[in-house]
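From the methods appendix. Each design record in this collection lists the tokenized structure first, followed by the designed amino acid sequence. Records were kept in a plain field format so they could be parsed without special tools. The example shown here is representative of the layout used throughout.

RECORD:
FOLD TOKENS (186 positions):
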């Protein structure tokens, strides 16, 4: 059943890219914190995702690789962060994210920490507030304790297979599209 469907070509998709003013107008009031993430490939995936949903900023904190930190990491980030996202997305590197996340919380941002455990809320039932800091953690250790202390809410996605957890960018995709979907249906 392809009646009424026509796939857009890559040229059409490229031609439909929003300019800087349009991107500014549709910005999602979300800051994504990627803390102590080991894989530079995951960082690239997050650049691509964060640009696609048009978040306010991506913060790469602790040991998380960032563009320019080394040739090796920069190449890996560029490999998965395709499409120019690395050039246009607002990002910063912070050794210690705690003071800045605390500051945002004091300014009224909702700090939503993605973790698996007791006392979490399913991702579709969370009140993300008007402005949201989304925090993701290390591939094994998870989010550092000092950031857990700053959480307004712990957000969890159900895992129904034999794999313990989602890849961090896959997890971020589900949450960011949930937030974007709510905005679009307002
Ligand atoms: C690979 S997971 C951490 C794995 C886990 N700590 C373990 O020991 O297997 C890395 C990060 O992705 C996010 N994450 C992955 N799956 C998630 C899920 N199902 N619910 C909430 N967050 C998840 C969290 O932010 C987590 O800190």
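DESIGN:
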């Amino acid at each position: 059943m392809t009646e009424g469907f026509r796939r857009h070509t890559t040229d059409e998709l490229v031609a439909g890219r929003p300019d800087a003013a349009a991107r500014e107008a549709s910005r999602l009031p979300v800051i994504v914190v990627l803390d102590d993430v080991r894989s530079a490939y995951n960082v690239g995936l997050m650049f691509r995702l964060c640009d696609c949903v048009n978040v306010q900023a991506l913060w790469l904190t602790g040991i998380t690789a960032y563009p320019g930190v080394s040739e090796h990491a920069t190449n890996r980030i560029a490999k998965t962060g395709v499409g120019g996202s690395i050039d246009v997305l607002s990002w910063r590197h912070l050794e210690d994210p705690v003071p800045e996340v605390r500051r945002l919380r004091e300014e009224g941002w909702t700090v939503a920490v993605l973790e698996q455990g007791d006392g979490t809320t399913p991702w579709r039932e969370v009140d993300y507030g008007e402005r949201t800091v989304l925090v993701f953690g290390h591939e094994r250790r998870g989010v550092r304790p000092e950031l857990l202390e700053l959480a307004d809410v712990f957000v969890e996605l159900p895992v129904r297979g034999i794999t313990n957890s989602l890849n961090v960018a896959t997890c971020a995709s589900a949450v960011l599209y949930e937030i974007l979907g709510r905005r679009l249906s307002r």
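APPENDIX NOTE: DSSP finds eight helices and seven strands in the chain.
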